[in-house]
Amino acid sequence: MKKVFIIITSMTFLLLLINASFCAFDNSDIGARPSGMGGAFVAISDDSNASAYNPAGLGFVKNIDANFTRLILYSGIVNYSYAGVAVPLKTFGSIGMCFGVLQEESKIYSEKNLAFSYSKSFADMVSIGANIKMLSTGFDESAEWVKENPYFTKKTTSGVTFDIGLLAKPVSELGVGLVAENLAPVNVSISESDEEKVPMNLKFGLAYKLSAIAKNAQQPALKEVLETAIISLEGGTRKEREVSTTKLRAGIEMWFANQTVGIRAGYNIKKVEQSSNSVNLGASIRIPISNVNMRIDYAVQILGSDLQENLNHRISLAMSM
Questions:
Q1: Residues facing 78 on adjacent strands
Q2: Radius of gyration (Cα) for the chain, nearest Å?
Q3: What does the pLDDT average to over 61-84?
Q4: What is the DSSP secondary structure assignment for residue 319, as one 8-state letter?
Q5: Could you tell me the pTM of the whole model?
Q6: For residue 21, what pLDDT band results from cuts at 50, 70 and 90?
Q7: Residue 236 confidence class, pLDDT cut points 50, 70, 90
Q8: Which of 26, 109, 312, 316 ranks highest by number of CB atoms within 10 Å?
Q9: Half-sphere CA count of 194, side-chain side, radius 13 A
Q10: What is the rounded CA–CA span in Å between residue 116 and residue 111?
């Protein structure tokens, strides 16, 4: 009877984990800056977040850029730590790397994601890029319900997959991004009797800088905002357990006070069998230190009316040199 209770309880917990899992593998809304724009970053990807959103964006990064992000999801039930770096190599293109670790509150379940990126731009108009990613999931073998559960024929699993991306700038104000993620199937199930493949993602986005209309502004303050403002739209699709999922995202970013303070807002809709949506808000402050341009980004994602249970927080420390 005790074993039956353990199995039923652990299987229920496992299903809850699976429903909330693949955060590390989805690569959506990781950095605080992209998250503040609702995750609509595929057509921007102009910093070290590019490896997680569109590796082609690395081709347009001019300086060494790094960021460290901490995510607190669902009031601390799930936490995610992320680090990314972008290094331009002049005529040889650009390289990047990112690493993320997701853990739930009890630290029984975890996900890890390591990606190596390369990108090359052509004539400052088109850039192509790719990621090679190593994905892994694991359960704590010392946990009693894991040891007692016959479903767990293995405690860890891992695999390798890749992404390809394109970022075009037909005019200086317009960005067009396309990325295909997880093109090689990876089975991350911890049971030999089951199959849990990381789904392939397809995303397309447009971003437009409002600097083109800034010259028509009469007020100096408005002109400064328009010169730094960018709006972004994005659509994506993936198949989760034989069910197609569609995501639509939109965001805006603006800078004030001589580009020292930034604010962002975003909105996204996820449609599976039913629709869900969230509102995102974000802010940044730049802190120049010697030859390093340091930036602190923050974003909050509001998933529903119950703010206490449905707030996701992200904070990033970004550095460019």
A1: 73, 104
A2: 20
A3: 90
A4: E
A5: 0.86
A6: very low
A7: very high
A8: 316
A9: 15
A10: 17
CA distance 146 to 171: 55
d(CA 277, CA 66): 30
Half-sphere exposure of 235 toward its Cβ, with a 13 Å CA cutoff? 1
Instruction: Specify the pLDDT at position 64.
Output: 96
- What is the distance between the alpha carbons of residues 20 and 78, in angstroms, rounded to a whole number? 9
Report DSSP state, residue 186.
Answer: -
CB atoms within 10 A of CB 106: 10
What is the mean predicted confidence (pLDDT) over 241-268? 91
What span, in angstroms and rounded, lies between the C-alpha atoms of 218 and 205? 31
Q: Are 139 and 108 in contact (CB under 8 A)?
A: yes
Q: Kind of pairing, strands 261-271 and 311-320? A: unpaired
**Dist CA 143 CA 152 (whole Å):** 12
SS3 108: coil
Say what the pLDDT of residue 3 is: 42
Structural tokens at position 80: 């995610």
Q: How far apart are CA 105 and CA 185, in angstroms?
A: 28
Q: Give the up-direction half-sphere exposure of residue 54: CA atoms within 13 A in the CB hemisphere.
A: 34
Distance from C-alpha of 50 to C-alpha of 179, rounded to nearest angstrom: 11
Tokens of 317: 């420390």
Contact 260, 220 (CB under 8 A): no
Query: Side chain identity at 254, as an amino acid letter?
Result: M
For the chain, helix (H) and strand (E) counts, in that order, are 7, 14
Reduce the DSSP state of residue 248 to 3 states and report it. strand
Highest mean pLDDT among 146-150, 172-176, 270-274: 172-176
Q: Identify the H or E element spanning 206.
A: strand 201-209
Query: What is the C-alpha separation between 228 and 179, in angstroms, rounded?
Result: 25
Output the CA angle 99-100-104, nearest 5 degrees: 160
Which amino acid belongs to residue 175?
G
